[in-house]
Each structure stands twice: as structure tokens, then as C-alpha cells.
Amino acid sequence: MKVFQLEGGWSVDHLTIAERPTPEPGPGQALLRMRAASLNYRDTVVVQRGYGAQTGQLPLIPISDGVGEVVAVGSGVTRVKVGDRVCPMFNPRWQGGIPTAARIGVTLGGPLDGVMAEYMAIDAESLALAPEHLSDIEAATLPCAALTAWSALVTEGRVQPGDRVLIQGTGGVSLFALQFAKLLGAFAIVTSSSMQKLERARALGADATISYRETPEWGRRVREITGGDGVDHIVEVGGQETLPQSLRAIRPGGTISLIGILSGPVMDARLGMVVTRQVRLQGITVGSRDGFEAMSRAISQHQLHPVIDRVFPFDELPQALAYLTSGAHIGKICISHS
């Protein structure tokens, strides 16, 4: 079978198309014919071995998000059957319950081989059915980006109708967060440096938008929009440079879901604002299979469709990663395996 793998070094230049034997499903496993994949910021970090030894060893098949069709099952498999269209979970050992080291310590696309292969043999318990109304490309975006947004707003954030939610940016996770916020009946504010991207966010239902290029002190602007109170929940993707403004924008007792560190990995904020205003700073690392299935039911019920920016053919994975790194996209960048 054809795969894309990192071999001989850690960089985009070491991504190579190679041949591997088609795997056979062992006991408790299912064999998937992969249909599509989607990219996340994490994938660019893996290619650079940005997680150190936890990134895995070479050769490594990258990319964490995908969808495939079950074409064979091993002995003892009852969860899925041949013909099912399924998504492999990013944390294949986290079926439900609270996160533990055992449940979240192993992930697809590094250290485990990822989805850039024609076939995958994987534990059936780590699979979940994809919503029927979605295309393969759309379904491939759900296991990481969509589930991260769902975990932030629903599983951990418990956002209620009428709550006010601030969402940073218009990447994959952020637009899922916007869609879920509106599904939940929340008031949504979106920030971006691009007026074009903010216009797209308004078309997707954003109630207010802020250009952080024109308004660097956007935390103050958020308070103006909310009548001085601040927002109930913030989807924080920037990290080092954006967290100080998030602390100005959040209400006392509000929740900041930290899901990304795009502007830097170091904590550089006034921690007194967290303590004296009883702010909850919640780290989010994707989510469990149970969370995925709850999210999938909501997506199906409301016939929600992911926002797709661009689809690349399988052979153009390096170009797709370069496009992701450019930051020009709005929504998800996907790979077609056909």
C-alpha cells in the first residue's frame, strides 16, 4: 500500500511517499481503507519533532485526523462491521471518563502512525461512526478539530443558551467553536487580524467581530460589547501573547479554554487576575470517544457542515502543510486519498 512517511530526518523535506505491506487486522482490530484526512497545527509540530521523544520514531506516518471505511475485522470485533464509515480517535485509548496518563499518553500521527496511508489496522474500540450526512472530506475534520471545540464549550465549558463566548481566529477549531456556540444559543464574538476572515465569520453567525490589528487592546473592546461584564467563555488559541487580553475580556468566574499556543508556549500573564477574579483556566486536549459520539449526534441532529477551505490530493501533503503554515486559510485544509 502507498503511505506518506517521515524518514531520514524531521522536516517537511523528509516527507516521502513509500510502500508498506497492507496490514491484516488482528484480534479486536478493524482494517480501514482510508478515504480522507485533514490537517491541524499539531501536524506541523510533529514534522519538526516538536514534541521531542514523545513525537515518535522514524519512519513515521503523520497526520492525526481522518476517516475510512471498514473493509475487514479481526476476531472478537462487535463495535463496527464491514462497510461502516468511521473516524479513528486521536486518543485511541480514551474511550470515556476523565483523562489519565494511560488514556491520553498515546496519540495518532505521533507517536503512533497516522492516517496518511491507504489502509490502517487499528483497535475497533478506538473507532466511532461518522455522521451520515457528511462527505468523506467533511467527516475527516471531526476527530481533532471539531472534538476539541466540543470539549471546550460543552464537555468542560458547559456553555448555556445566552452565554457570551469569545473565539480567537478563524482556523478549524475556531470555526467549529463558532458553529457549536450558535448551536448552543450563545452570543459569539470572533477576533482576527483579517477583515475578510471576520466577514466570513459574520456570515457563519458571529454576533460581533473584532480586528485585533486595528484594536490591539481587544479585551477592553470585549467589555464594551458586553456592557462591562466580560464574556463567560473564551476559546484561547494564541497562548503567550493573547492570554493577557483574554484575562481582561473574561468575566469573574468565567472559563478560558486553552487549546493552542500559536503565539508562544510561555505563560506571560498576571496570575493575580486569575486568582482574585476566580477565573477557570482549563487546558483542552481533544477529547474521548464518548465525547465524539455525543458531538456526532448533535452534528447530525442540526445537519451541521464543517467549513472546508481547500482540498489537496494525497500526493501533495507537503504543499498542504505549507498552506496551513501560511495562515491564509479559513476553516479546514483537507487531503483526499482517492
**Main beta-sheet strand count, sense and barrel state:** 7 strands, mixed
Radius of gyration, CA atoms, in whole angstroms: 20 Å
**Count of discrete domains:** 2
Run of helices and strands: EEEHEEHEEHHEHEHEHEHEHEHEHE
Task: Provide the low-confidence segments as ranges.
Answer: none
Q: Spell out the CATH superfamily of the largest domain.
A: Medium-chain alcohol dehydrogenases, catalytic domain
**What share of residues are in beta strands?**
25-35%
- What does the overall shape look like? globular
CATH architecture of the largest domain: Alpha-Beta Complex
The tally of helices reads 11
CATH C-level class of the largest domain is Alpha Beta
Helices and strands: which structural class? alpha/beta
Head-to-tail CA distance between termini: 13 Å
DSSP E strands, number: 15
CATH topology call of the largest domain: Quinone Oxidoreductase, Chain A, domain 1
Helix amount, in percent?
Answer: 25-40%
In short:
By secondary structure, this protein is α/β, with parallel strands linked by helices.
Provide a descriptive summary of the structure in words.
The protein is an alpha/beta fold and 338 residues long. It has two domains: 2-144 and 287-336, Quinone Oxidoreductase, Chain A, domain 1 (Alpha-Beta Complex), CATH 3.90.180; 157-283, NAD(P)-binding Rossmann-like Domain (Rossmann fold), CATH 3.40.50. Helix content is 28%, strand content 25%. Strands 3, 4, 5, 6, 7, 14 and 15 form a seven-stranded mixed sheet that branches. It starts with a strand and ends with a strand.
